[in-house]
Amino acid sequence: MDQPVSGRGLRNLALATAFVLLVGYSLVFFYAPNDADQGFLQKIFYLHVPLAIVSLCGFVFGGLMAIGHLRTRDPRWDLRSYVAIHMSLIFAVTALVCGSIWARGSWGHWWVWNEPTLVSFLIIILLYATYQPLRFAIEDPERQARVASVFAITCGAFVPLNFIAVRLSTQYLHPRVLGSTSNLPAKMAVAFYICLLGIAMLFATLWRFEMAAKRARFQLRAVKRALSEHGLIDAPAARRTPVPDLEPGPLRPDRPAPAPAPTPDRAPVAPQI
């Protein structure tokens, strides 16, 4: 992790993300019409579907980063893959919750087992839910990274295959958004694609923020370890989280020892019995 921490452009990206999300969901509530059948409840579609699409793309992105790790053995690629999968799983669970709320209001059930889209999405979530337990069950860092990369590549290849299989399914209750069979009116389509762009930018912003935070943590540990090896701070202080400059440590060789505290001139008073 010798690459310096880079938060360059992160603030501008965060501001742009907030702007696009604000515009997108303003269009959802004030521009896009209500659905003729579901009414206002259909507005959750503009959050549920972009979250699902971005999470699936994030899983594939994590698999591509894992390929880079297996090719180069560079731990930075493994870190990118780990953060992408971690973030995608959060987005996917949020999409699943939103979808259950939508299904309850639209179909009268929290879950419908004969809907291929819902079941396949749940399978992907359960599959990636085993990523972190599998990863941290291995103590050796290099072997841990290799196994996690193989897992990310295999599951990342499963995501598009699963999407194609669902698309070829004949029994299909879930609305189709992307493709030639989309029946969104023009105003709904504009609001949807701007919301999709905003959610994708939100994913990129959070991914970059977590990457910068983890790199900073790794570099801070390296600095503490170097200071500990040179005797500038004690070993326990090198393992704690505060910044080394703010921690008390042993005296440096070129620093004189502090003078002892002055003793009082008068003799101590004997205790009264």
Q: Can you characterise this structure?
A:
It is a single chain. 24% of the residues are buried. The chain is an all-alpha fold. Helix 2 runs antiparallel to helix 3 (75-107). It has helices spanning 10-30, 45-72, 75-107, 116-129, 131-136, 141-167, 186-229, 235-238. Residues 1-5, 241-257 and 266-273 have low confidence and may be disordered. The protein has a domain at 34-175. It is globular, with a radius of gyration of 27 Å. The protein has 8 helices and no strands.
Assign the structural class, choosing from mainly alpha, mainly beta, alpha/beta, alpha+beta, or little secondary structure: mainly alpha
Largest sheet: none
Mean of all residue-level pLDDT scores: 79
User: Ends: how far apart?
Assistant: 67 Å
Shape: globular
| Number of E-state strands | 0
The topology string of helices and strands comes to HHHHHHHH
Estimated helix fraction: 55-70%
Count of discrete alpha- or pi-helical segments spanning 4 or more residues: 8
Low-pLDDT regions: 1-5, 241-257, 266-273
Our Rg estimate from Cα atoms comes to 27 Å
Strand content: under 5%
Summarize this structure briefly:
This protein has a domain at about 35-175.
Please name the defining characteristics of this protein.
single chain; 273 residues; mainly alpha; 8 helices; globular; disordered C terminus
